[in-house]
């Protein structure tokens, strides 16, 4: 029994407590965690931390002191039963000394195991606290990832709207070019009789006909384009506001679900 309840268990428990302190410093992200293997490029490896939490928990509970306390109680009860059953004449001086030695050993081991049990219970409680902290950090990271994904989705939606707007602007420029083609054609036709380059350079008195067609047509096209562009921008603004509202509602719903999971 003395071999089973040796100081080796106490040494193992102290070593486990040292490892628990390293875990606590790593999880609390102190400045002195840079030398630990939990930190890689300044980032704490939570997978390794969780694995070590489980391993230390297993090591601490590998040989529970409470089990040996029950064994010592049983041995002491058997010793007392034996001592009460033998005849008083058989209780020699050597046997009395042996019985007293056994009782002292039982008491010493029981006191040591009580202290070791308290030590183990505190270590387990500290491990549970760190496990809860890891779960909280993991949930917080998941929440930040969800917010980041929502922000990325919103930015992609804005980029899609901007690309669509640029496409519509190019279409508008093409439309303007097509609208002015008739004016150019009219000018080409009218220029045949408006200008006479044979004798002297002069301009026909009927050039006003060109401007009479060109100016109203150009003005009408520009006003129509301005009206169309204004209407298009207003519709885009309404769609963007509705899309942002939907994205905000989705974000609130996701954050609410994450909060419920905590």
From TrEMBL:
Keyword line: Membrane, Transmembrane, Transmembrane helix
- On the tree of life, the source organism's domain of life is Eukaryota
Asked if the record carries the keyword Transmembrane, the reply is yes
Which SUPFAM superfamilies did the record assign? Answer: Magnesium transport protein CorA, transmembrane region
Q: Which residues cross the membrane?
A: 173-195, 207-228
Gene3D superfamilies in the cross-refs: Magnesium transport protein CorA, transmembrane region
Subcellular localization(s) per the UniProt record: Membrane
What is the recorded membrane topology of this protein? Multi-pass membrane protein
Any one cellular component term from GO for this entry? Answer: membrane
Q: What is this protein called in UniProt?
A: Uncharacterized protein
Source organism of the structure: Colletotrichum orchidophilum
What are the leading ranks of the lineage? Eukaryota, Fungi, Dikarya, Ascomycota, Pezizomycotina
């Amino acid at each position: 029994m003395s071999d089973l309840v040796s100081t080796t268990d106490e040494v193992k428990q102290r070593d486990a407590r040292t490892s628990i302190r390293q875990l606590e410093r790593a999880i609390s992200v102190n400045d002195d965690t840079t030398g630990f293997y939990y930190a890689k490029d300044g980032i704490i490896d939570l997978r390794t931390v969780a694995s070590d939490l489980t391993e230390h928990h297993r090591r601490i509970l590998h040989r529970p002191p409470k089990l040996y306390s029950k064994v010592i109680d049983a041995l002491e009860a058997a010793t007392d039963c034996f001592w009460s059953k033998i005849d008083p004449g058989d209780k020699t001086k050597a046997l009395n000394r042996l019985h007293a030695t056994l009782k002292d050993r039982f008491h010493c081991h029981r006191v040591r195991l009580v202290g070791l049990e308290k030590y183990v219970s505190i270590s387990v409680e500290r491990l549970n606290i760190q496990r809860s902290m890891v779960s909280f950090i993991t949930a917080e990271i998941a929440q930040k990832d969800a917010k980041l994904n929502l922000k990325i989705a919103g930015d992609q939606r804005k980029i899609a709207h901007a690309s669509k707007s640029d496409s519509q602007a190019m279409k508008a420029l093409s439309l303007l070019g097509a609208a002015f083609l008739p004016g150019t054609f009219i000018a080409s036709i009218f220029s045949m009789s408006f200008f006479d380059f044979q004798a002297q350079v002069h301009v026909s008195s009927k050039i006003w006909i060109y401007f009479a067609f060109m100016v109203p047509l150009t003005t009408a096209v520009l006003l129509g384009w301005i009206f169309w562009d204004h209407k298009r921008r207003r519709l885009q603004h309404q769609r963007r506001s509705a899309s942002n509202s939907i994205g905000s509602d989705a974000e609130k719903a996701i954050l609410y679900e994450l909060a419920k999971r905590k």
